[in-house]
Design brief:
The chain contains eight helices and eleven strands. The protein is of the alpha/beta class and 287 residues long. It folds into two domains: 41 residues; 222 residues, Class I glutamine amidotransferase (GATase) domain (Rossmann fold). It comes from Acidisarcina polymorpha.
Length: 287
């Protein structure tokens, strides 16, 4: 009986014994994979590559920004959009913008993990938008960050005050502001809060139109930072005593934070402000 014919250079060529066996069983010829097998392998490789690519490129979370349009705050809003777009591109999250509340309903908000109220006031909302937003906050369907105009609570432009939103902001009503602007020193009251991580305290905010309200929201919210009115430059009579400027309301299921500052675009050159904004995005979106 003739000995099986093995390929002499099998070791050097990296052909294993199983290949030898196949070679023997096929008359010494190594069986090649069929076209269908090759196509199946190519399909699996392509699917794996696509899956890996999708995992890397699909956004980590989605943000909807309700942005004020027009008026004296437009430069701040424009700077905010540029800054947000750059951060989203760098950190792989998606940002969409709307300039009124017409699109807002339950289904619309369900697409987003974070709602940013970029200087949009708490009035001139459609009833549908109000109801959807209340549910979004009370049921913790997403997080919320509000800036500046979000506490313009009262009767403005023919609209009545939104009582629910006033309660959400600590039961306050807008009373006055500093139209000529003033610098002010802000002190962090809860440095352990995630939104304050890496923020030096105190820090200076320049040329802000500090709002006053009929009372401090402190009894109804968790204050994160306050402005020291004695540091106003130039000095002004528009003061309210205890003056929180950043706070969160733990009485609502959604992670929420109000940041008063938001008049001038130069705020996006202020490291304390941008660090707080960045921290707030990830905290409120639960990332």
């Amino acid at each position: 009986m003739a000995r099986p014919a093995y390929i002499a250079t099998s070791s050097a060529q990296g052909i294993d014994p199983m290949q030898h066996k196949v070679c023997e069983e096929n008359g010494g010829a190594l069986k090649r994979p069929s076209i269908s097998t090759l196509l199946a392998l190519l399909f699996l490789c392509a699917a794996a590559a696509q899956s890996a690519f999708s995992a890397e490129t699909s956004p980590k979370f989605r943000v909807i920004v309700l942005a004020e349009k027009g008026g004296i705050h437009q430069p701040f809003v424009d700077a905010g959009k540029i800054w947000l777009n750059e951060l989203a591109a760098k950190d792989n999250f998606a940002v969409d913008y709307i300039e009124d509340t017409a699109p807002v309903n339950d289904a619309f908000l369900a697409r987003y993990q974070l709602f940013i109220q970029l200087n949009y006031a708490p009035y001139n909302w459609t009833p549908t938008a109000q109801a959807a937003f209340i549910k979004y906050i009370e049921q913790g369907k997403g997080g919320w960050i509000g800036f500046h105009h979000a506490t313009l609570l009262g009767e403005f432009d023919g609209f009545q005050m939104w009582p629910w939103f006033s309660k959400f902001m600590g039961g306050i009503r807008f009373t006055a502001y500093i139209p000529t602007f003033a610098d002010g020193v802000v002190t962090i009251e809860d440095p352990a809060h995630p939104t304050m991580k890496g923020v030096a305290s105190p820090f200076l905010i320049q040329q802000e139109e500090w709002y006053t309200w009929d009372k401090s929201p402190r009894p109804n919210v968790h204050v994160l930072a306050s402005v020291d009115e004695s540091t106003y430059k130039p000095d002004t009579k528009t003061k309210m005593g205890d003056h929180p400027v950043i706070w969160t309301n733990p009485n609502y299921k959604a992670r929420n934070i109000y940041i008063f500052m938001g008049h001038h675009p130069e705020l996006f050159q202020n490291p304390a402000f941008t660090r707080i904004f960045t921290n707030s995005i990830y905290w409120a979106a639960q990332q």
